User: Fold these one by one.
Assistant:
Number 1:
Amino acid sequence: MKSWDAIIIGGGIIGLATGYYLTKKKKKVLVLEKNEIGSGSTSRCIGGIRQQFSTPCSIKLAMKSVELFETMEKEFGFSVEFKKSGYLFLAFTEEQKQKYLKAIEIQRSQGLEVHFIDRKEVKKLVPGIVDDELIGGAYSPQDGQAFPFYVIKGYAINIARLGEVRRRAKVTDIIVENGKVKGVVLEGGEKLFSEIVVNAAGPWAKDVGKMAGLDLPLEPERHEAFITRRWKMESIPMIVDYRKDGGYFQQRINGQIIGCYTPVPRVEGTRTDSTFEFLKEMSYRMARVIPELADAQILRQWAGSYTMTPDGNPIVDESEIEGFYIAGGMSGHGFMFGPGIGWALSNKIVNGEWGLDMSEFSIRREFQKAELLK
Ligand SMILES: Cc1cc2nc3c(=O)[nH]c(=O)nc-3n(C[C@H](O)[C@H](O)[C@H](O)COP(=O)(O)OP(=O)(O)OC[C@H]3O[C@@H](n4cnc5c(N)ncnc54)[C@H](O)[C@@H]3O)c2cc1C
């Protein structure tokens, strides 16, 4: 009978980060991925990494992630294209400015370098930006980006040194006995045993929860994105435009512009079809902020899932089934939170302590306090 220190369901950033930090603690880990690694949400994200959140819990988690992103090149032996290229949240109204100022106070109290910059400074930072209605923006030069494909590659290679990352391995059932998890069953019937099982199945985490009899408040929704050909190098930080018809975009370190927006109304489910409407809208929304970008050539578009909880914050916790952990509901923050969550989960599993305040992500919370900056 083959058994493991931990079995992780899902080969996205969350499952692989958890596997990697467990492996670093000398645990024998098996990651099961039904398709290819990164094939869920992770390879479809736009690689943004920010620490500008509105609560100490989220800020600290994101700061821990940044600390870990910074060490990846050394640990993996290759670059993950991590760069502190900044995040700029645009303010168009006094109300928005006040909201950012309040958040900045909390962010600074946690040690984050962040400022409210006026219109002139925004213009200096992002040449060519339209400043008619702009008041200024919340800016942290400590935020940035990395390339998801390299991050998960680094994690997967290193897990495989002590454990295994098995592709095309779909979990169809969770083995639970007397309120404790004992292992999983794969499509085809193979049983694999461990007293620790982590549900990191991203948009399918609700389905995996059901296998153990849990009804998790997780709902996937479709988000589309596009990337342009290389744009003349200017280093545009992640621009966050929270207007109703705004969006998010940044320049990758190779010069490409990558971006997306939150669709209204929501498009529920795990569909990944792309629309012409997105292409048109996103082009318009980006060029409205920086008109020169109307000349950028779009290279590719795609879609993926955000997995939402009722309050927009992740669930990272041990469930009511002993040894069965849930790490899901990452919304649009799973890539940036991923390393921190994996590190904290590995601490909890091995030492019984998270190593960070993770109370905001408890499965037992009321789901009423929404993150303001999302
Ligand atoms: C357009 C877009 C832009 C985004 N931009 C950003 C961004 O800039 N920054 C950021 O932080 N986040 C961003 N996100 C969100 C981010 O992509 C997700 O939060 C993150 O990737 C979630 O990671 P995950 O590991 O939870 O899920 P996933 O990457 O989906 O991994 C889950 C894996 O589990 C596997 N799986 C599911 N069921 C089973 C099963 N039964 N058996 C075995 N395997 C199974 C799936 O195949 C999948 O590979 C974006 C998302 C989208 C769609």
Number 2:
Amino acid sequence: MRGVVMRAPGDVRVEEREDPKILYPTDAIIRVSAACVCGSDLWPFRGVDEVHDRPMGHEYVGVVEQVGSDVKNIQVGDFVVGSLFASDNTCEICQAGYQSRCVHAELIGMIGTQAQFARIPLADGTLVATPGRPEAELIPSLLAASDVLGTGWFAAVAAEAGPGKTVAVVGDGAVGLLGVLAAKQLGAERIVIFSRHEDRQKLAVEFGATDIVTERGDEGVAKLNDLMGGLGAHSTIEAVGTQESMMQAIRVTRPGGHVGYVGVAHEVQLPGDELFFSAVHLHGGPAPVRRFLPELIQLICDRKINPGKVFDLELPLEKAAEGYKAMDERRAIKALLIPQAA
Ligand SMILES: [Zn+2]
């Protein structure tokens, strides 16, 4: 099969990869209908994370081709959405809603779904079948559910966004934008996003943002406080993962408020004294996307939300390298990849 391999930072290729096989009776093999490039794939692309001949991709929707002998809930022919972590969905951690930290969790990113086929471990726990075969126009939104929407949704839930709440969003990538959508769906009253990019601001407003703040740092904090009567936000979504973004998130949150942080942390160090006096709740980490999949799939199939709008570039799998480049240069918010017929 054809699949994306990152040879080294900046060097993305589409190569012949071995066809996946069932390795464990709990596995399924899917034919990937659509995959995409994640903001987190840019960390190794830029050389921030080490990378050497790694298969890429952890977001996917597709059709089940084959199941192992222990798989009961998923059938050959099902159209399925999975998340970036394989999980059994039965252990105590999963049952509590933290499937991304399942005691048997496996990173799908190690398998690589930017490919024609993929082996999905723990298929019964990991995959959720859609009601029937979805129409083609729903596929980008279902694909978004497999990571960026699920992650933005978790951030909004972790930040306790809801009716009567004011929400601040730090980060205008796909996750931040879908954090706006999630906060709106959860009933938030006012949603402010930090963004300097016109196309992203537009999409944020479409998803439910009520205000845009273009200032950053102390100025951004002051501007947001002005908008929120000098008190700061009840709920803040942090969707970047840098020192600056994390501190921005903590500083715009009112005492007693909640920060939902989902940007993959890169060398973030929290100053204990400032954290102590901030009196905010911090909750986040790798999003347990699986917790939200049934609800998100339903909202998408009922056409109540259209998160697929974050994909502003669609490419055949063979041109994956162009997707990485466009996202790296911020010419695209998010690139969707369509594998060629096998
Ligand atoms: Zn588990």
